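To assess whether the prediction recovers the assembly geometry, we first specified each molecular entity separately, as shown.
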Amino acid sequence: MDVTDEYYIERCLDGHPDDFRYLVRRYQAVLLAHLAGQLGNRDSSEEAAQETLVRAYFGLEKLKKRESFFAWLLGIASRVAKEQRRNKQRRRRIGDVLSETVAKPELSQDYALERAITALPESHRQVVLLRYYGDCSCNQVAEQLGMPLGTVTKTLSRAYAMLRKSLQQQDENCEVQK
Amino acid sequence: MNCEKCKELLVAYVENLLPESQKQAVESHLNTCPPCRADADVVIGLRDRLAANGKAPARSDLENKVLNRILQEQSSKLREVSKSNKQIQLWRIIMKSRITKFAAAAVIIIGIILSMTLLNKTVAPAFGMNDVLAAIAQAEWMHITWDYAKVDAGSDLAEREINERWISVNPKRSITIYKDGSINFMDYLNDAVKAQEYDAETKMLTVRYRPASRDYPYATIVDMCLGGLSELEEKEGAKVEYAEGVYGGNSVKIINVDNTDDSGVHLQLSIIADDQTYLPICMTSLHEESGKSTTANAIFDYPEIGPTDIYQAGAPPDVEVRVIDYRPSCKFLEAIKPYRAARASLPKQLIVVEVANQNDNRSVVSVIYTSGIKERFEQLKYVRDDTAPDTNDFETILNWANSVKSDELAIQLNDGTTVYCVNRDYAGRWTSKQESTSRYGVGLVVAGLIHRGWPKIDLGKPVENNHTIENGLLCIETMREPSFADTKLAKPAGQCRAQSARLGASYSVSLRCRGAGHFLAPSDFPRRLCQETWENDVRKENTVAYTRAVSGFGALRQMGYTRRQGSHQIPPSWRQGKAFSTLEENFRVRR
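The predicted structure of the complete assembly is given in tokenized form:
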């Protein structure tokens, strides 16, 4: 992560919208994973990611702490996801469709893992998403989230424990169903 | 190592974050303890699973989709604006670029330049627009008379038709005379740009002096228009054709340009140039936008003399004059003299050393060195806290940095292209990283640092850059950090923006007018709080900008400025675009 977010933000604000591309590139995977966790399906998470990024672009001027672009982006994403869920529910009510299927994240093949990540507390999820979906090193995660490296490893440790537990539970449930 | 300790370190081990000794300890424990080994395998499995899954999300075309949407929304916004604010489309294109904005008066050559840029890449004929431009540069004066054959009511041009344009090589001058009698008279002086604007409606003549941060050769004035227009060419690809013909009984060169941009503006130009001299003789242009069109003819002539002042250009002699001077006051210049002298005595190579205590915003020491060749900084600044040394001596600052015990420190070395950053963490460990070009700006001399006992840092290769001195200093910005409200001005009162952004210390007010380095004289500045900050905003292709401001609060202190009670707040209206007009209002308006 050589060039900082702040630099690209500055470029965008200076009338180079094309540079927003780099920010999109940097965060799309994390954003998609984050949204998939919240929305539970790939199409709507892509749609939401698009909406989030567009909103973020037009809101850049309002972003005070440019170094926390990522956290801010996730905030927008959560709002967008909420709106989408609400709209969906409304549509459902209007259409009177009662058969509600359980939302499943379908970003990738590893549903179990996706579900487990979704179940993580926000702070833990952020670290996991940045580390594995954002392809950041632990140092970069620390920088990104403004926390000491030690906290990142501790959070990761706890996240691992939680993931293991919830994956185990999922396995057990599967076996019970069988 | 016991199992408990091993569990604790497991993730750090898997993530390869442990120092060698601990790593070996964990490894040897894992080799001897099967339950822990099993545990580790599970964690490694999970890590691999996460990593594999992280790479799995198909890269959809999100990037392009997002950018398309942004551009769409932006252009629809622009269109809305343009409906209410009727301006010639090309003008807008020019105004979009900060540099070309400065030379707006030279807009006359748009047609020519447009076709020239278009041409450069499309075909390579024996005769090209470059020849035309070179011919123009040879002429003492170029004078253009416009004749509007057809102007639809409501079209962009209906509001302000241009009557005449004068452009001179020596003195560097460009004059625009509008149909309504308004005049724009620009003089590019050695150290300043003098812009005289006569507004026929308000019967007011405004003279603005702006410090020129660079020399503006005639060709540069022309070039400044190129920036915006080359963009037009790249994105839109206009059609250009060359022909030969006869005009008024003489053989001529004809250049035809045809372009329709994204927002539907259609522009058609025909330039007729002399067969021998390549000087344009006349030009016809058709400009169409949303059903409204304007047809204009321009006739070029090349007189030996032109208007020497705005009154000769047609401004009434008894008109009210106001002068707004943005040049630095003598007082201010006097005050920063020692800084300039200090700067001159600094080493020629090392450019920036910045020592910042990141835990406490108040402890910031920036020592800015300028390069003998690449002069990036206007002055030297250091802001200090009680413990920081009151010096610009490098050794002393280093000693101070080393003596700061418990705090995390960041030292940045900046060679103008690459920023090399060394961090000391809470445990006193030094780590380094290279932040690439990003915002700072060339070549690095760390040897000096290492020689002085600084830990050895792997710095990698400096990146090539193509900044040149011609790019000059372009921008000024002022800022305040409210987080210092509770301190006296003797404490740091302003910082560079990069710093304030990193420290999250709130806002800055930027008065930007790139292309013209504005200089605020503190004596007349409202609230008596300002700083001189110059910023180099050179943003070339693939080269990253240097965006750094250096402030001169020391200079203010020297002048006896103190912080006034409650004056740390900057009025909200100063923010963004309004900042400038407010300034202008409050600034020295002399009648």
